[in-house]
Amino acid sequence: MQTELIIVSEYCHKCQIEPSFIDLLQEEGLIEIRTEGDEHYLLVSQLPEVERYSRMYYDLSINMEGIDAIHHLLERMEGMRREMNSLRNQLLVYRKHELEETEW
Fold it and tell me: Where is coiled-coil annotated (predicted)?
């Protein structure tokens, strides 16, 4: 499986963001930067997160600590959403089983 990479400096130039912002995201553990030779790369799969963090930082003036807090809250919400879906599915199975028993 080949991972698609984007050169950080080119991405920053195209999106008009500072390369130091990408470094800050990496330092906070929000993204992963790969280094090959002298070049730094972003994973294509991380672009939606980088764009979201960029909007928070540049458009909404949220500092890095705020972005990190928002990231962790969104992760917790996603975990709770998955748990609720799992519990909902279990409940449906239980109700279906209960209905089958009452029909006998």
Answer: 70-97
- Which CATH number characterizes residue 68's domain? 1.10.1660.10
Give the model confidence (pLDDT) of 26-72 as tens digits: 999 999 999 999 999 999 999 999 999 999 999 999 999 999 999 99
**pTM for the complete prediction?**
0.77
- Which residue range forms the structural domain that includes residue 11? 3-100
Paired sense of beta strands 33-36 and 5-7, if any = unpaired
pLDDT of amino acid 24: 95
Number of domains the chain contains: 1
Evaluated on CA atoms 22, 28, 33, 36, the torsion sign reads positive
Six token digits for residue 98 = 């209960």
Looking at residue 104, what is its pLDDT? Answer: 65
One-character DSSP codes across 67-96: HHHHHHHHHHHHHHHHHHHHHHHHHHHHHH
Task: Give the H or E element holding residue 21.
Answer: helix 19-27
- Element containing residue 40 per DSSP (H, E): strand 39-43
